Fold these 2 entries.
Entry 1:
Amino acid sequence: MLDTQPLSMSAEEQHRLLEWWQTLEAAHPIVQRLCSLVSELRLNPESSHAEGMILFYRAASEVSYGHAGVRGGIRRAFSSEYCEALRMNLVMCHFVARLFSGDTKVLLERVAEHITGPHAQQLVRRIRETLMENDAMINEMVKKAHAFFGKETFQALQMKAMQSMTLPMGSRENFEFSAFDRI
């Protein structure tokens, strides 16, 4: 279990955290535009039927959730809630935004293969451009996270997060995926 004992930050750490926050604030309109364009594509009659649309929509939503999670974590870090558990949450939310950004790009290309309408194709082009902007902001977020945590610490926390999300070998035999497994 993660430690929830309050941690203190130096003035320099607070400054670096504020810079990370400012990067997220700059990214916020890009993420909003991405979600708006994806929703428009999903509802467009020229593209709503496209294979993979729901997965694509969900992946883009996860990008938004990841950004929001980091923003919320940073906001909480400036309060008495700053602790090891919150640090881990920041890293995990950042990981989600970055991971699903890649998934969104792959799924967009799959969806785009099934779209023929000119308006929907224009939306796909705009989504591609917005995803490139989002990638640039994620790269800036990585730099700010490295500045705040230290590159090695950040990478170690990422590894810890990935390990906490992975089932150990052999545990699958005892894991029920759904109620249908019992039928």
Entry 2:
Amino acid sequence: MAAVLLALTSAGCGWSAGARNCTMIGGVPGITVLFEPAEGAAQNPTVAPTPTPTPTPELAPGPGPAPAPASDPAVFRLCVDGRCVERTEASATATPVRMSVRTADDVHGEKLSVRFSVTTVEDRRVIMDDTAEVRMTESWPNGKECDKKGTWSASLDASPETGLRPFDRL
């Protein structure tokens, strides 16, 4: 009885010997940029630390002022063939930032123009502003056995030191 129940359950799920289990991961066509802060940026802040005030006799010493941020808030902007997304982060030096712009489903290996910039909010200092041409490549997140149609995408790295460049997967 248990063997029959197992066979019926497996058949109902589409399982058969040698068949590959497919997930519903899917993919979204588009371009993704991963921004890495400059080497040492968090260790060499662009904002000078606030000095600790000297306590006066009538005031009890307290914890002191909060440490200065590693950098000013920054605006990150990614444009792909004129379509742009923008967001503000607390710092351009604290952590990596990932941004994506969705593209049409029918880009099929086309070259697209990409522009990525990072600018501080307060003094509008340009930390990075670079452009690149990138060729979309087809991928199958679940494997070709599961996805009849691939997803067209491209990934780039960005840093003030190296600029905008295709993501090196190896």
